Amino acid sequence: MKVGIIGLDLPLGKVKYHDERFVELVKKCDPLKVTPYYVELVQEDWEHADAFVVAREQVLDLLILDMEKLETRRERTGDPAEKAVLSRGLDLLEQETPLCDGGWTPGDLAHLRALAPLSLKPTLVLPAPLEVNVIIGQILAKAGLVFFYTVGKKEVHAWPVPCHADIVTCAGKIHTDLARGFIKADIVKYEDFLNVFNMQEARAKKLVHLVDRDYHIEDGDIVEIRFNV
User: In which domain, by residue range, is 99 found?
Assistant: First the structure.
């Protein structure tokens, strides 16, 4: 995830997210390779940012760019429904509220996304400075992302996905072949895994749940994919 930073003194570039669950899984598995989650913090190239973190006193630096887009489009459109959405969006922006907090319907979002406004992306407005790891956690939550994990002696890997993503989508995050040849998945909850020696013991204690493609991931799930390509 690339996060635009405005008005905050934070380290730029790739920053590792200190995920306590990931740390505990690494301690438990002692793998040859670890792949934690990194966020890239930037102060430019805002159009390509996935989310924003903005100091309260400088929020207009971001929102004014969206105001210009919405005002220009409102003047040109002849669609009453679109004009109503744009007017509501401008009201929010004038109240220094990012568009992502508007509670929009899918139809509203279709009008707005056509303009690619920046603050429609997950935007966290901070009234006071916070430690960078706390900020990363908050913007991940704002973006609706959760983590599942793959574990073993070879590697422990943290995978971010949208909340309630289906298991086939999660398999595709690991490798496209796993999604293409998906059969089933073994799921064990993080807390259960910490209380056993390995996946084999988790199976013996019936802590592993075999799920089909209609399963939706829960935050902290540990996943093994069964597939055939």
Answer: 2-21+38-141
d(CA 38, CA 46): 18
**Confidence (pLDDT) at 34:** 97
- Examine the fold and report which residue of 141, 175, 190 is the final residue of a domain before the chain moves on: 141
Q: What is the pLDDT of residue 229?
A: 81
- Please give the model's pTM, rounded to 2 decimal places: 0.90
Q: How many domains does the chain have?
A: 2
> In sequence order, what are the beta bridge partners of 182?
227
In a domain, 53, yes or no: yes
**6 and 111 share one domain:** yes
Q: Does one domain contain both 73 and 11?
A: yes
Are 137 and 171 members of one domain? no
pLDDT tens per residue, range 2-44: 999 999 999 999 999 999 999 999 999 999 999 999 999 999 8
Domain boundary among 87, 110, 141: 141
Instruction: Provide CB contacts within 8 A for 139, sequence distance 6+.
Output: 1, 3, 39, 51, 53, 122, 124
Query: Percentage of the chain with pLDDT > 70?
Result: 100
- Assess contact for 24 and 156: CB atoms under 8 A: no
